[in-house]
Structure formats: structure tokens, C-alpha cells
Amino acid sequence: MTQEDDNVAMLRAGYAAWNETRGDAGVWLDILAEHVTWGSLGDGQPGMEFSKSRVSKQEVVDYFKELTNDWSMEFYHVSEYVAQGDRVVALGECSWTNKRTKKTVTIPKVDVWKFENGKVVEFMEHFDTHTAIMASQD
């Protein structure tokens, strides 16, 4: 197996557990480096405050706590992985319900991961921020 194969296998297992547990962040913690850059197109906008940039494993833990305080996962499915060198792109669809508004959003999702020495050192999520923000508003 190549390093690319190993990285994809780690993510495949992580996403399967993430979907099965419907949002237990613990499934991701073992693959994160202590110093990880974590970003989102949401970029901390109103209604998506959890999505502000993070720069450490502990801050990523906070990201997940804030996410699951405000939203509950309905599903998270990855349909394709594209790996080249130290990067893996995960393409899929997810569905979340805002706990306050009770609105559910189902959107395409693209996650870009970068690995070093078998650990995630960068992550960036791409999704329809407008639809997600609208679901967070009354």
C-alpha cells in the first residue's frame, strides 16, 4: 500500500464512524496532528460561528463541540476520494438539523485534507454556506 492508500483508508474509516455515530468527534482525534490548521468556507459567519479557523488539535475539539451544540447530524456520506501525494479530497453529501430552528439542510460537501507523517496537518471544508446560514436563522 502507498501512503496515499493509507491516508484514504484512514479517512474512509473516519467518515464511516462519523456517519455511524452521527457526529462523535472522537473518531477524528487520533489522526490529527497537535498543530493542525482547520478551516471552513463558513469562516465564523453569523449562524456558523463554529466554523471559524482553528490552529491546534484542542481548537479542533472546540470546533466539534460548538458544531454539535448547534447542529445534529442526519447523515454524512462520502462518495469519492481523490488522493495525490499528501492530499486527499473527500467528495460527498451531508445533512444537518439546526437544533434551535429545527431546519434541516442537505448539501454537497468537499473536504480537503493534508497529511504529514500519517497525521492530518491541514483541513478545509467547502459547502453551501448560504443554505446552511439560512437554516440557522428564524
Describe this structure in words.
This protein has 138 residues and is α+β, with helices and mostly antiparallel strands. 32% of the residues lie in helices and 41% in strands. It has 4 helices and 5 strands. It has helices at residues 3-21, 26-29, 57-70, 129-135; strands at 32-40, 71-84, 87-98, 104-116, 119-127. The chain has a 5-stranded mixed β-sheet. Strand 3 (87-98) and strand 4 (104-116) form a beta hairpin. The protein is globular. It starts with a helix and ends with a helix. The model has no long low-confidence stretch (mean pLDDT 95).
Give me some keywords for this one.
5-stranded mixed beta sheet, globular, 138 residues, 32% helix, single chain, alpha+beta, 5 strands
Nearest-angstrom radius of gyration?
14 Å
Structural class, please?
Answer: alpha+beta
Which geometry do the CA atoms define? Answer: globular
Helicity, as a percent range: 25-40%
If you average the pLDDT, what whole number results? 95
Head-to-tail CA distance between termini: 49 Å
- β content, as a range? 35-45%
Which regions are unreliable across 5 or more consecutive residues at pLDDT < 50?
none
DSSP E strands, number: 5
Let me know the largest β-sheet.
Answer: 5 strands, mixed
Largest sheet, spatial ordering of strands: 1-5-4-3-2
Sequence of secondary-structure elements: HHEHEEEEH
Number of helices: 4
